[in-house]
Amino acid sequence: MASVGFCPAGWKGARKTPNRNLLMTVSFVRDQPESVTQVTSSDDRLQAGIRHGSRCIPKLVRAGNLPGMGSFTEATTTAGLRDGVYESTLDTEWSLGENPHGGYMMALLTKAALTTACRTHPLAVSTHFLRSPEIGAVELHTEAVKRGRLYTTVHARMVQNGKSCVEATVTAGEISDAAHAWEAHQQPPITPFQECDEHRTPAENLLGHIDVRLDPRSTAFLRGETSGDEVRGWMQLTDGTDFDPLSLIVAVDLLPPTVFGLGHGGWCPTVELTYQLRGLPAPGPIATYTRCDALSADGWFNEDAAVYDARGRLVAQSRQLALSGNALNHR
User: Fold this and answer.
1) 251 and 235 in contact (C-beta within 8 Å)?
2) What DSSP designation does 198 have?
3) pLDDT tens per residue, range 222-274
4) Which residues form the Acyl-CoA thioesterase-like C-terminal domain (predicted)?
């Protein structure tokens, strides 16, 4: 594992990000997957970077909103081109590294599907990531394949330069704000929000929009130690808005990979992710828990996420299939 002050290599290119209080340089080397890349900053609280699928997260303690950053609503704006087809622009501010965040792309595709379905909520979204699109214009192709009294099923594709990049099946309907009739488990323990450090960057990217606070009891891997198969953390949007059924899709795909706690590192690409909405989130920060049930000998692992709102109510779940960076390095 990378030690404190280092980011597991994964992305090509170098970024220099000026800020009133610090200058941070992060280099990502995609062609050298076994190497690690040092992250330097004038703030001595800079800690290890985190790489997860389309996410490379230089960890930094820094507060305050960043000027000029677009909201989630603005970043998921769509416009109709023709029946079932919409146009949109992948926003660099909702990306990490050089590529759009996977959860953000899921949310954008889901929004188009909801429009086609004439429904309010994404009850379930099953997504396959085929190739990573570039920042910029995309088309969202949707087709309603079932319209029922209680839900509508829509197939959706994100297309760029004539190629499908992301495909999803969206089950759309309406969900009430009433308490669950039954839950197998209550919200698991987590370090209080105020006692967790912020993990934000001054760069105009995804982590400028979401205040992520990792539970230090689940992140021993940041000190180069194994820490088990779970990661926990709090999140809140920095513009003062609250999470909703669409932005929760981003939240289930934002914590560090669980396999980091099992001694694995590097780029861990997500191949498939299924999201389920279980309730409408209350105002306030959300708590997200992820765990890994099995890591195969050839590097495939599952990652399950559960999201609880400020009332302690389960509001979202997900399961994804991903590939360990260690396995990629040896292929």
Assistant:
1) yes
2) B
3) 888 887 889 999 999 999 999 999 999 999 999 989 888 888 887 788 999 99
4) 198-323
Q: What is residue 319's three-state secondary structure?
A: strand
Instruction: Dump the DSSP string for 225-269.
Output: ----SEEEEEEEETTS----TTHHHHHTT-SPPGGGGGT--S---
Tokens of residue 86, six digits? 């919409």
Q: What pLDDT sits at residue 47?
A: 31
Q: Are 250 and 293 in contact (CB under 8 A)?
A: no
Residues 6+ apart with CB under 8 A from 184: none
**Separation of alpha carbons 198 and 62, rounded Å:** 7
State what percent of residues in the chain have pLDDT above 70.
Answer: 76
Q: Give the C-alpha separation, 90 to 138, whole Å.
A: 7
Contacts of 204 (CB under 8 A, 6+ apart): 66, 68, 69, 92, 93
Q: Give the phi and the psi of residue 93 in degrees, each rounded to 5.
A: -75, -10
Alpha carbon distance 150, 283 (integer Å) = 27
Chain segment 298-313, per-residue pLDDT in tens: 889 999 999 999 999 9
**Contact by Cβ (8 Å): 103, 235:** no
Of 184, 168, 237, 231, the residue nearest 207 (C-alpha): 237
**pTM of the predicted structure, to 2 decimals:** 0.79
Domains plus CATH for the chain? 54-331 (2.40.160.210)
| Mean pLDDT within 169-186 | 92
Distance CA 210, CA 8 (A): 21
Q: What is the DSSP string of 44-65?
A: TT----EEETTEEE------SP
Q: What does each C-alpha distance from 53 to 24, 99, 308 come to in angstroms?
A: 22, 10, 23
Are the C-beta atoms of 7 and 56 separated by less than 8 Å? yes
pLDDT at 103 over 50: yes
Rg (CA), the chain: 19
Per-residue pLDDT at 204: 66
